[in-house]
Write a structure and sequence with these properties.
The chain contains 4 helices and 17 strands. It is an alpha+beta fold and about 240 residues long. It folds into 2 domains: about 110 residues, Diaminopimelate Epimerase, Chain A, domain 1, CATH 3.10.310.10; about 120 residues, Roll (Diaminopimelate Epimerase, Chain A, domain 1), CATH 3.10.310.10. The strands form 2 sheets. Strands 8, 9, 10, 11, 12, 13, 14, 15 and 16 form a 9-stranded mixed beta sheet that branches. The longest helix is centred in the C-terminal third of the chain and has 15 residues. The chain is globular, with a radius of gyration of 17 Å.
Length: about 240
């Protein structure tokens, strides 16, 4: 018997469609064995499967084309936006996270790079002073860095002015550059404030080099890290399986 599942695709960290970082949000109950296959069919960086469990709370499963994640930044923001206005609390493998916030960023430094964890996702963050728009990094070198540091992503960032940062974030195991990395944005803003004295509220430019410009809004204080941005709907429809 065929099942039908409604979905919406939204572009996170963008005020226009076909930019930002896209996520597919499946709106109807999906059988667990189908989730991974559906994420592979969609082939976006993440597909989410939320289940509303209260007036302002939902549980979510987050899948990439290759597996399930305990948490991810832009899919959390996009899912909360699709479910409707208000202040949602998201429950996933890492526990409860307000859908408009990313918190509890921890930082460790070594040899000019910083290992950061936020929302259960580990990043290797490297502050630089050179322009990033012409950056060329070999996949093998990125993979070695990620494996040595035990991280999911490798990110580089530079200040453009007191309230603007430029970042590029790579996911070596998956072989792609991420257009907008919500879980890395908080640690990046905290580091920039510590290293260069940038403002508490900053905008991170990311994704321009790969044609998916993102503008990530971050409030960064110790114990109070908030990540957000504009979100735009770009597609909706139904899967018939």
């Amino acid at each position: 018997m065929a099942i039908e599942l409604g979905y919406r695709v939204v572009d996170v960290f963008s005020d226009r469609p076909l930019a930002g970082n896209a996520v597919c949000v499946v709106l109807d109950p999906c059988p667990e064995p189908v989730m991974g296959a559906l994420a592979r069919e969609v082939n976006l960086s993440e597909t989410t499967f939320p289940t509303v469990i209260g007036d302002d709370e939902y549980d979510v499963r987050i899948f990439t084309p290759t597996g399930e994640l305990p948490f991810a930044g832009h899919p959390s923001l996009g899912t909360g936006w699709v479910l409707g206005p208000g202040r949602w609390t998201q429950t996933s493998e890492i526990g409860e996270v307000p859908a408009a916030w990313l918190t509890d960023a921890s930082l460790e430094s070594a040899e000019g790079a910083y290992r950061a964890e936020a929302g259960g996702v580990a990043h290797l963050l490297v502050p630089v002073t050179a322009r990033l728009d012409r950056l060329r990094l070999g996949p093998a070198a990125l993979g070695e860095l990620a494996e040595k540091a035990r991280v999911t992503t490798v990110g580089l960032f530079v200040p453009l002015d007191d309230s603007t940062l430029h970042a590029r974030v790579f996911v070596p195991a998956e072989g792609f550059e991420d257009p907008g990395t919500g879980s890395a944005a908080g640690p990046i803003a905290l580091l920039a404030r510590s290293l260069w004295g940038t403002a508490t509220d900053v905008i991170i430019h990311q994704g321009d080099e790969i044609g998916r410009p993102c503008r990530i809004e971050v409030h960064a204080e110790e114990g109070d890290v908030r990540v957000g941005g504009r979100i735009t709907a770009s597609a909706e429809g139904r899967f018939t399986l």
